[in-house]
């Protein structure tokens, strides 16, 4: 189903079937969107599996024990050697709704901001690298602080890597925080790091704190590298090649105008022949324009 509405000064609005909306959003979305969908899908899959476990008379404890052994990062090196894939799978698994919600909110908030200055590949690389370093810290560093290792799950280390990179790279840029107003990115990061450092003295939370700090270190290093690289580009004046004076159009402006004209032609086709007459490419272009 596709409905086109034209509002005064509001631009086109699109209503699609939910299934098609999700499919196109995942296919055409950024790496941040894809990562969020994967995390949500795995969370929902674990809940659906719990329903089937109940129907087949499998105790809840046995069900989650099986999931932990397959998806979570074990607390021992031997366990990781027997299930090496868990160094990746653990960073996509959440069992609590609030845990999932908090991580996905931070991933969306900081990932979208970082995406404006980087690429999809950078976001994915940071996510994976942050998770891997978090796993290493959990296995080798947490025991030194008295942490009791069982199993590890969650995207916290990955999200911390993305958040720290953004906060260091754009350390002067403010972040709007509820009830506090505008706060510089650097201050937000320092507050979070300070909180995690305090948790190192807590035997219950030391494992999570070490994992979070491991991801943050990845972000700190990447943010510093990006900051230095950006300053070098600015000092050489390489970015000035994209600026024009007078009445000339920049490449970005020209490209944006061409894209708007193409969308308008597709909308005319929808008005004349309906949505089903569009090609898959035209449907993809129309969906992307509706997300902006």
What does this structure look like?
- This protein is mainly alpha-helical and 292 residues long.
- Helices cover 66% and strands 8% of the residues.
- The protein is built from 12 helices and 6 strands.
- The strands form 3 sheets. It has a two-stranded antiparallel sheet with strand order 1-2.
- Helix 2 runs antiparallel to helix 6 (97-115), helix 6 runs parallel beside helix 8 and helix 8 packs antiparallel against helix 9.
- The longest helix has 31 residues, at 206-236.
- The chain starts with a strand and ends with a helix.
- Residues 1-15 and 238-253 have low confidence and may be disordered.
Write the layout of secondary structure elements.
Elements: E1 2-7, E2 11-16, H1 18-28, H2 31-55, H3 60-71, E3 73-74, H4 77-82, H5 86-89, H6 97-115, H7 120-140, E4 151-152, H8 156-169, E5 174-177, E6 181-184, H9 185-198, H10 206-236, H11 251-273, H12 280-291
Antiparallel strand pairs: 1-2, 3-4, 5-6
Helix pairs in contact: 2-3, 2-6, 6-8, 7-8, 7-10, 8-9, 8-10
Keywords:
two-stranded antiparallel sheet, 12 helices, mainly alpha
Uncertain segments of ≥5 residues (pLDDT<50)? 1-15, 238-253
Helix content: 55-70%
Strand order of the largest sheet: 1-2
- Please report the distance between the alpha carbons of the first and last residues: 20 Å
Secondary structure tally: strands: 6
